[in-house]
Specification:
It is a single chain. By secondary structure, the protein is an alpha+beta fold. The protein has one domain. It is about 20% helix and about 15% strand. A three-stranded antiparallel beta sheet has the order 1-2-3. The longest helix has 9 residues. It comes from Trichoderma simmonsii. GO terms for molecular function: FAD binding; oxidoreductase activity, acting on paired donors, with incorporation or reduction of molecular oxygen, NAD(P)H as one donor, and incorporation of one atom of oxygen. This is FAD binding domain protein. InterPro entries: FAD-bd (IPR002938), FAD/NAD-bd_sf (IPR036188), RIFMO-like (IPR050641).
Length: about 100
């Protein structure tokens, strides 16, 4: 689960750089398989969402439970909604302005 996100603005235009750094915390067994209705996790990550052939490989990798690791990347793609963790973490300039709506376009 992501715990922090940092973008090195000074290296964004460098094609060889990886300016995005995300800190990830490995989930405990309880966190990784919450009861969906009673869960306090808000990211939609559930073991039941994993593809059948990926599940065994991912379940076998439990040595890092509770451990944090840093991942460096060229880009960050926030697909977690208008009022998401990614937007909140990136700061005020990325916050949605105005009213939200449930209207279908």
């Amino acid at each position: 689960m992501p715990t922090s996100l940092h973008i090195d603005e000074s290296s964004v235009d460098d094609e060889d750089a990886y300016p995005v750094e995300v800190t990830l915390r490995h989930l405990t067994e309880e966190e990784a398989t919450p009861t969906q209705r009673l869960s306090n996790l808000q990211d939609g990550l559930y073991r039941s969402n994993l593809a059948e052939d990926d599940t065994e490989r991912l379940l076998a990798n439990t040595a890092g439970v509770g451990r944090e690791e840093k991942v460096r990347a060229k880009y960050v793609v926030g697909c977690d909604g208008a009022h998401s963790w990614v937007r909140k973490t990136l700061g005020e300039e990325y916050q949605m302005k105005g009213e939200s709506t449930d209207a279908i376009w």
